[in-house]
């Protein structure tokens, strides 16, 4: 997928997240934002997978469903949601690790616990 198409898709995800945040504001738990963002993105015509299982492989050991990505949009963008006071380096590392494990190229980390949501949106390209 071209960079332009990834940017268009992440723009649509951001627009959906802004709409959810406009209605709900900060302070709710992550699962509430996940359900609402999935609904919003589906209403915008996007294919969404929620709680997508991510396997890890260590040598000859495969652990199916060791982790779960909050949302995968159009099988092209992995979206991790947080509702925390501050995004920490471990949260960013989580997204990068999920991208590596899934082979997905673009990821987003969205922290809904911000007065201005724009300051809680982070985009990653592997």
Order of helices and strands: HHEEEHEE
How would you sum up the major sheet?
5 strands, mixed
Structural class: alpha+beta
Query: What is the general shape?
Result: globular
Oligomer: single chain
Number of domains: 1
List low-pLDDT spans.
none
Which topology does CATH recognise?
Answer: Trna Endonuclease, Chain: A, domain 1
SS field, number of helical segments:
3
How far apart the termini lie comes to 13 Å
Second-tier CATH architecture? 3-Layer(aba) Sandwich
Radius of gyration: 14 Å
Under the CATH scheme, which class?
Answer: Alpha Beta
Which band does the percent of strand residues land in? 25-35%
How many extended strands?
A: 5
Structure characterization notes:
With 126 residues, the protein is an alpha+beta fold. The protein has a single domain (3-125), classed as Trna Endonuclease, Chain: A, domain 1. The chain has three helices and five strands; from the N terminus they run ααβββαββ. The longest helix has 22 residues, at 3-24. The protein is globular and about 45 Å long.
Overview features:
single chain, 126 residues, alpha+beta, Trna Endonuclease, Chain: A, domain 1, 3 helices, 40% helix, 33% strand, globular
Q: What's the helix and strand layout?
A:
Layout: H1 3-24, H2 30-43, E1 48-58, E2 61-73, E3 77-82, H3 89-102, E4 106-111, E5 121-125
Parallel strand pairs: 3-4
Antiparallel strand pairs: 1-2, 2-3, 4-5
Helix pairs in contact: 1-2
């Amino acid at each position: 997928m071209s960079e332009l198409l990834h940017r268009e898709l992440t723009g649509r995800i951001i627009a959906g997240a802004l709409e959810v945040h406009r209605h709900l504001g900060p302070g709710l738990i992550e699962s509430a934002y996940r359900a609402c963002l999935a609904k919003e993105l589906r209403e915008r015509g996007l294919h969404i997978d929620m709680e997508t299982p991510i396997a890890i492989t260590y040598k000859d050991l495969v652990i199916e469903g060791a982790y779960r990505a909050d949302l995968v949009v159009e099988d092209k963008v992995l979206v991790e949601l947080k509702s925390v006071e501050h995004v920490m380096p471990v949260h960013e590392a989580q997204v990068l690790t999920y991208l590596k494990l899934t082979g997905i190229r673009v990821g987003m980390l969205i922290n809904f616990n911000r007065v201005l949501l724009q300051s809680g949106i982070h985009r990653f390209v592997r």
